[in-house]
Structures are given as structure tokens and as C-alpha cells.
Amino acid sequence: MIDHASLLAVLPELILTAGGLALMLVAAFGGDRMTQVVNWLSVLTLAMAGAALACSLAHGPDAFDGLVRADAFSVYAKALIYAAAAAAILLAPPYFLAGGALRAEYPVLILFSSIGMGMMVSAGDLLTLYVGLEMQSLAAYVLASFMRQDERSSEAGLKYFVLGSLASGILLYGTALLYGFTGTTSFDGIAVAMSDGVGKGELFGMVFLLAGLAFKMSAVPFHMWTPDVYEGAPTPVTAFFGSAPKVAAMGLTVRVAIEALGPAGLDWQQIVIFVALASIVFGAVAAIGQTNIKRLMAYSSINNVGFALIGLAAGTPAGAAATMSYMAIYVVMTIGGFACILQMRDADGNPVESIASLAGLSQSRKGLAAAFAIFMFSMAGIPPLFGFWAKFLVFDAAVAANLTALAAFGIAASVIGAYYYLKIIKTIYFDEPAAAYEAKGGAVENVIMAACAAVIVFGYLLNPVLDRASAAAAASLF
Description:
This protein is mainly alpha-helical and 478 residues long. It has 22 helices and 2 strands.
């Protein structure tokens, strides 16, 4: 029998489920003329779910006999996910309206994807992990191909579906191996079974499980879908993919590594270090030759995942806290960056994606040019912007865990990544002007862009709050 405490522990998911189903009916019966209403009601639903996180935490940390965790870590990750999802909804209408694809299903799909992501970061069992991951993925496949008349969008959805299905199969195989050799799907049970040594079967299961999670994070060598999907998907969807699902995948990986695979720390640490280094180097080098801003952001996301994994590689509370702090700052940079990209529209209002088209932006749209520069400098890790603090935290955690060589490599590789970010700034401020963009962007885009830029510039004022929140979230795992 389900107790009331368990239901209250998953109150945010219940709110999103009820809201998503109700708004799906509104979209079905009201048609596309109800899109703006559904948009704002979806944002309100996400806000209500965010407010319910306090109730969830009060009735945790375990629900449904350990299947779900309602602890500080899940609350922290869900807050980031809901904020990123709300931003992706608010950024979408001008883009879809210009392309004739403004439909009420878009925010509903994001709500259902948010339910899956919430289950991912709250998972206390391999079964919950898989159900949440698949719920998030199924909505994401549809979102990638949302503009059905656009060949690139349809191709992006198909590639994401095929490769995502393969990754899900790999992850499920790892889950089956872990269950077969440990006799349980519970994270706590797996940790107990591994405490007396890690057998070959358990090791293979762990490798397959981490491979499936690496795909969801876009980490090398399971990154192959990211550039094509980022480029082909509608830009608001790309902004969503680059923020909320990244937090969910990283949060899930941190929880699995610490809670379920904790006794096998020396084994998974080697895997995480390799994936982190490969992601940092490949993401930086592959981004250098890109001419499409969305493909560049795809390789940038791969690069940033590598940096975030350095914190996890430390395997300490400080490392886990650094990783989650990194993801919080990364979400702000990504949403702000894509708010700028969404304003890249020619005089006729058509989206423009080439980096060369940014030439002369500093003369025609000074505010947009300044915001673009702020986000690029921050992603490059230039002090005193907030992006520098994100990198500093993970490097500091690695050094404290005696992984000085890893931190040194990451610092050196940051220089490679800085090149293509600075190349964009050089194009904006120093290249011969290209065709001018339309005179102004949407009001909501401008507000989100300005808010993100303010956080990046004055983020050092938030350091005490962010540090305490991430430290409390990490402490709940150990």
C-alpha cells in the first residue's frame, strides 16, 4: 500500500503529470490558437512544481521503498531542470511563429520530458533510472523533429531516435548484468554487493551502464549524435537539449557513481577520467573549424561535460558539489547563449546560423553584441566572469583529491577551447560587417538574455549561496 509520505515526496512529478495531461487536452480541443495560453500555463506548472520541492524534501529522503530519493541532491537538480525547461518554453514562440510551426504541443512535451528528468535525478533503483530516462528520451525524440516540414529537423529526430535506442539498449544490458551478478536493482543493494570486491560480471555491467549514461551526457566517445541533432533541431529545442537534459544526465551519473558504484570507486574513476579528458580535447579541437553557431555550441557542450566530469572523477563530496555547481553555471551560460542565437535573424525575420553572419554585429546591435561577448568570455573561463568560477571549482576539487595531473591537463586544454570562443568575439567586433540583422528581438528573449548576462557578470555575489546549496546536495549522497 502506498503511503501518503511517498506521494508527497514525489509531489513535483504529480503536479507536472496533472498539468501536462490537462494542457494536452487544452491543446487537443483548443488547437494552435491556444498555444500562448498553454505556454504560460506550462511555465506556471513548472513554477508550482518548483515550489513543491520543499514539500518533497520534507517527506524524504526515501519514497516507495527506496525506488525514489527525495533528498537535497534531487531538489537541487530539479530546480535547475525546471528553470531551464521554463526558459526553453518562453524562448520558443517567436522562433516557431516565424517558421509557421507555433503549436501547443511543444510546451506539453517539455513538461513530460521534465517528469522523466525529475525521475532520473531522484532514482534510487535501476528500474526507476530506466523509466525516467526513457520518458525523457521519448519526448526529446519528438521535440528534435518538431518542425515536420523541415528536412533537417526530421533528420535530427531520426538520428536521435536510432542512436538513442542503441544507447538505451546498452544501458539496459548493463542494468541486466548488474542485477544478475548482484541480485538486486537497488542502488544501496548494489553497493553492498560490491563492498566485498568487484567481480568481472559486475565490472562489465558497470561499464555498459556508464556507457549508456555517457551517451545521454554527450560525452566522448558517445557524442556522435550531438552536432547533427543540435544543428537540425529547432533552435529553442537545441537550447533545451543543451541545458535541462544535461543536468539530468550529469545528476543521474553522479548519483549512480557515488551511491550504487561507490565501493568500485577506483574502477569507475578510470573510466570517468578517460571520458573527461577525451571530451575536453575532442570538444575543443572539433569546434575550431565549425562555421555553424549551433554545431559549435554542440561541441562546446561536449567540452563542458568533460570539465564537469573532472569534479566527479575526484569522487569526494567537494568534487560532487563542484560538478553540480558547474552544471548550474553552465545552464545559465547556455540559456543566455541561445537567447542570443535566437536573435540572429535577417532583415526578413528568417533565422541565421552562420558564424560569419555575426560580423559587424557590434555596429548594428550593440546590446546583442555585448551579451554575446559576455557569454563567450564566460564559457572560455575568463575571470572574473562566472564561468571562471565553475572551472576553478572542479580543478580545485581534483587537486584536493590528488588528481593534480588531471587538473593541469584540464587547465591547459582550456586554452584550446578559448580559441573558438574568442574567434566569435573577433568576428563580432573586428570583421568587416555582414548584412545587418533585424532591428530588435523579442521582449522575452531580451529579458532572458539580459538576466543571464547579469548573472554571469555579477555571479560572484551568488557564490556563497551556490556553494552552500551544492555542498548540501553533495552531502546527501555520502
